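tool_call: predict_structure(chain=1)
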Amino acid sequence: MQDLQDLGFDEAWSSTWESWIQELQESTARRYAGQLVPARVALAHKHLYRVVSAEGEWLAELSGQARAGMALLSDWPTVGDWVAVAPRQAEGRATIVGVLPRRSTFGRKVAGGRRDTQIVAANADIALLVTSMSRDFEPRRLERYAALAWDSGAMPAVVLTKSDEADDPELFEAQAMQAVPGVDVFRVSAMTGEGMDELRARIAPGMTVVLVGSSGVGKSTLANALTGTEQMLTQAARSDDDRGRHTTTHRELLRLQGGAWLIDTPGMREVGMTAIDSEGLSNTFEDIESLADQCRFSDCKHEREPGCAVREAIHTGELDSNRLRGYQKLQREIAYMRRSENAQLARQYVQNNKKLSKLSSRPNKRK
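tool_result:
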């Protein structure tokens, strides 16, 4: 059993809770009168959840009405969410009635062909963008992660792992600073402890931190070092390409030494921009957008136009051409996601209304 404040439930959350309860549908309020308590999602595996509150800890599932109201994949509960639950103490289970409005969300495009957003962490304060100092290091991937982090509302910070194995850690650090300018960059080794004290000092008590990174970069090992436990299964990366298998198969909220919370996520197989907001792109590529403001033409595409300040910066070595290509690729992804999202929302709105109509037309069953 946890104190709500220990879980991060502050005065602002208390106010959000009161407002959410007051706005409940009348039928839901009657059905769960006096039963609802705030709880935080500590573990999510498919559509089954482990939730923790001041009243206890339970295995939980969504109510039928709440499930019918999940129009988008991003509407479903995820680790870090605050939810309203009705405990069933005798069974050791609870029913999730709804999800409180999120302060921040960290999402990715769903792997495969679906045009949807999966929320991998909610209400995170800091997004630790984890990558190893090995052949798997890719600045363009860091740019993507940073754009997603800025867009989520969380503050990004870069963690370069396996510093004990790197031949030139300073070079990796310089490349990371160039890819994600203006954010903290930490070089660490969970094996030797190098840099871990500096990283822990960055994470204040009460904060929620999300670890984001590809498979095999040392996220689970880092999580174990930060929690002081061996809660996350780790597996060595393949020696031929420095890639590892997915050692985290679910998202989980873990208590850190010092009173903060950490969300560990599975390796991202397909990192893509979401159509939520382009602000993250602007924050990540502030250098390019600042140069673009100096171009002769306001609609400059930075290709062969005369007076292009971006191309001039590449010519003089001030800007890396690969960074511009990464920026332009993410711009195209955002535009595509926005076009497809409007059509998807319309279809899902109709489907959702049909589900709710069927649910509301069912006769009430009295015990």
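agent: The two ends are 32 Å apart (CA to CA). Proceeding to next step.
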